[in-house]
User: Fold these one by one.
Assistant:
Number 1:
Amino acid sequence: MFGTINIEDQVNVSPSELNHFSESPSLDLQSNSDYKVTDPLAILRKRINDKYLNKVVKNAGLMISFIGFDDIGHAEIDDDGGLLYSVTFKMIAFKPYIGEIIEGVVIGSDSTGLTVSLGFFNDVKIPCSDLREPKSIDSNTKLWSWEYENHKLYYFIDSTIRFRVSNVVFNGQAHDSGLPSMVILGNVQSDGLGMISWWT
């Protein structure tokens, strides 16, 4: 579900911050402790966190945490008189693998299926075609149910559901279209999957 990725990028340091820098910052690259705001690595790390933290990198996943720098190259002067550093660093990313079993909470239900929250990530969809058969939807409440031995077992809102990841979809045009940058698709078409209350 979580993994480490390497990222190469360029980080800008404004002219007003240059007095905190030597040509190449020499602090412990792997340290993730809290520096004072005047520490060179703290400034670089803040730039990285502002750009990446809690954001989706296409094909890599949701960036959860900065780990540390692998390399900080020599700086170049940018058009504003600041410095542009080429940096390589590691971050923890969230991207579940296909077939992984995950638990979340149902936060939405409509004719297309269910929406599930993992607490830190809400763009999980279980399409109606991937709900347990036979199924039906209540026209008034819009709640889906699995019909089992003449009983309707509902997918209740705010209740815990267990699902299998069937796909992870990245939307490269998310900023323009208003669609989520990353969507996890799941299914519950096996024993043990679906609402936790069904199996306890």
Number 2:
Amino acid sequence: MPVEQPRKATPRDRETTIGLKRRARKINRVLAETYPYAVPELDFENAFELIIATVLSAQTTDVRVNAATPALFAAYPDPIALSEAELEDVQELVRTTGFYRTKASNIIALARAVVDEYDGVVPSRVEDLVTLPGVGRKTANVVLGNAFGIPGITVDTHFLRLARRLGWTLETDPVKVEHAVGELFEKRDWTMLSHRIVFHGRRICHARKPACGVCPIATLCPSYGEGEVDPEKAAKLLKYELAPGREDLLELMRSGKSRRELRALGFGLGT
């Protein structure tokens, strides 16, 4: 029996402003139900570790960063220690994250700036954070939202792609996307929205082959049909804990197990 396919959401050019806002917020509610365990996928214990890990995550995966940071933070547990580090030593510790020479220089310079300008404490204002070496608005919002509890929208490649694919904005500049999407949601929702969109982009709404046939927001998406719509074929495109055969991992994540705990249990969390 043929599977009835969802209808596309109203095209963006025929949608009212209030209609767009309602649809966007409904998408957020559905994603909250789909990914109740959505959290930053970088491992960190404090603002210093998070800002360093986020700088290292440029042009690589969180999996690679999480593999490198335990040794890095064991050697340099705070801004003072990292600010006094030898460049060559740090390069070796972050080599596997790619572009390691630039990244090592940036995180040492960042640590020195935190020590010299902020008394060794990572600042909690976006205008201060973006003055630090290697830190842009994306990194600043990651730190604000997840280390300080200050709402922020993190526009990475996944968020940028999905914001346009979902018809939330036609902008391509990350700062303009941040502001346009921010207008659609309550400020208190910005940080968790960012996590959910990134989770969805990594797991279902992929750049090249979105798994439209198993997407929980298919009926709300004006781009439905750009990817595989057959449910069985789409299921084979799923990543991480949503992939067929990883139901045990999904249940553990829903139960509140941290990513570090899951790795200790032997689960691989990368793709």
Number 3:
Amino acid sequence: MWDNKDSDEDEQQNTGPMSRKITEKDQNDGKKNRCHCTKGCLKRSCSCFKYGSGCNSSCGCGSSCQNMFNYLEYFFGENQTCAAHPCFSKWLVQDAKNADGLQMIERNELCQRIMQSDGYSNIFYDETFKEWKKKWDQIEKNEELSHIQKLFRMLLSVEETMDYYYSFCENDVLEENSQWHCIICQKCVDWREWHCGQCNKCTYGHTLPCERCGGKSQMSGFR
């Protein structure tokens, strides 16, 4: 008869207190419609800034607000209230650094960067993007900016992101169901990864325990 000692120990290890605990951290945990800042709003400690959105009249910051995401209409068009996609948000903070820098980014150059990516041609299987491309090929000079801003809303915003988004981490247009941007780790990761709040890092396999602490994702119960 073979010795079952090792398998018993493994079973005990895999059913310990930590392995039974759901440790996945919701990316929207703490997201609110207003911040309670008293000044600045220049860092991720501001809940609006953290999620790539501008502050509003119900926020506590008032006239002291310097949130760079108050000026996203520069990319998305006037009267648009879109928040920046997490990957775009990270890039803006690194590249623009503040509101003045944000409005110095060349929109035509950013558009060309997107168009020159390997995955750009794949988006035209989608009817919405196909219509956008059809109009772009015939567009008048005075309509270019508004049409570029529409592309930005589709690939760089949260509200209007379609099945694709432009990843500054990968310098490519990606499918939403193949990769996603972890707002905590600040990088694009494989769709099969989830963020463990216990370790504060992403780990592979929705139905697998965290490779560091043994915690589980919300999907672990479907295994």
Number 4:
Amino acid sequence: MPRPAKKGICNTCRRRKLKCNQALPICGQCTTSGLYCDRSDKPTRFILHQELPNPDSPRTALQDQNIARLFHSYTSNISEWYDLSDSACSFGLEVPSIALDEPLLFCAVIALSSMHACKTSAPSFRKVAEFYHHRCVQFLIALDAGDELISRGVALAATCLLRSYEILDGDVDPNMHLRGAYSMASLHDVLSGIPQAGLLGAGFWNYLREDITFSLFEECPLKMNLESTPLMIQHTSDQDYLNSITLILGKIINISFKQDTDGRQWDYIKEDLKSWRNSCPRHMKPYSRLQGEITTSHLFPAIWFLQPCHAAILHYYLVAMTIVCIYTSPKSLEGLGGLDLPELESQSKEQFLENFALEICGVAFTAKVPSVLVNAFGPIAFCARFIKAEASQQELIRQLLACKSTIGWPVERLIGDLKTSWGMDQE
């Protein structure tokens, strides 16, 4: 009679028949080998649906018109979520190209696309989503150390897609794949200051943004230690400025949520923010702005940008400013304006925090660009609790519910957390 599996052992070590030290966020064996550390509650089993195309041959599977439509939905729509900070559009161009011949990535694409369809328009696609999701995880945990799918960034890209799948599915632990992919992302040379192009680099920046989103929801440090990671100096594209502020914000989150900071660290942070802000080209600022008014129907500012990455840049900058304001004082924000923010006049800390939150909502909901909205949930979760005006609170709830119907993101928990922070009755 087989012995029951020991609780806490990762499924990757179980498959490889190795001793697992059960460390989190990734066990010692997976850290050493750079493998995906599968932490699902029980080992993934193959789910058989005879009528669904076999993903072992993606090009053959794509002859099924439903699968072809799902693949097209990813390439024409969903992939933009991941190319927000990548001028090469690796998730929109390279991922589909590789997926045509690579079952692991093909399964990730179809799983995410079908779950998105399930949540926005066609609930019947759940069966398809679950089938390809299980197959994708099965492919991931079968990878061996040194597999080229890891070194090329294919496995990391797949896990970024799977995390979005888990979020759309409303999984109790949407952080599962974020933990599992940690070893792949942490091996990225950017941690040592060496930029990496292509899918591996794009996967790293997506992982870091997803890590930031989770940390802003949970108010906890990132899984990734960025302490010794140098800041980006050269920016060859507008997207590089987003990656740069992403790195700065990640450092700020780790410092603030570990709560072991001193005054000098905040001085360094403010200098980093100033230096980055001063390097931003003028065209990245909003080209049009209408300030919101409680007395009108425009409760949030209307803020228009040339590119989606410019909106995401301001989001992360506002979150950074919010954290600095929380842990220091409003006076310390002097000289940190710019990027066409309203003048940082002499206000109370509460006024600063509310204004930053309203700006974040305005940036997110003016153009309603899906990639910006997806990236905005973390900033909204952390900052919108400082909104005091009831009319603005109700408008935010309305806008979030509208997002659910268009991009499929489950917003119930976010709305519930905000209502709790506002002291609003739960319905």
